[in-house]
Design goal:
single chain; alpha+beta; Ribosomal Protein L22, Chain A; 4 helices; 39% helix; flat; Ribosomal_uL22_bac/chlpt-type; rRNA binding
Length: 134
Amino acid sequence: MSEAKAKLNNYRQSPRKVRLVADAIRGKSVEEAITALSFIPKRSALPLQNLLASAMANAKDQSLPIDGLVVREIKVDAASTLYRRRPRSKGMSNPIRKRMSHISVTLANDPRPKKNKKTKKAVDEKSSVVNKES
């Protein structure tokens, strides 16, 4: 299977915010994904653009044809969390969690084949219902 991978570790933004942008480019061609990222007004769009460029460079190093590459898989996982404290009244404090993300991208020439969700039994039952009505 011909694929190219790239990874961005310890990106200092929460995975929840990065996943919003990652979901927008999943399954698209690389050209469409880069164009879409240039119009998304989120902070994580630029690092994802750079990550796609890195994955394309890896594909070029592996002698893969670049014109048909598709974003097959993009994962955003939680990295380590920095804990800070916010002072409160009466000598207390509340925790502040500064979350980080690991982002990994896989580019491939052919998208995964889509599975047909209807089984043969369901199709046969549907056709038998139509035949009974006739």
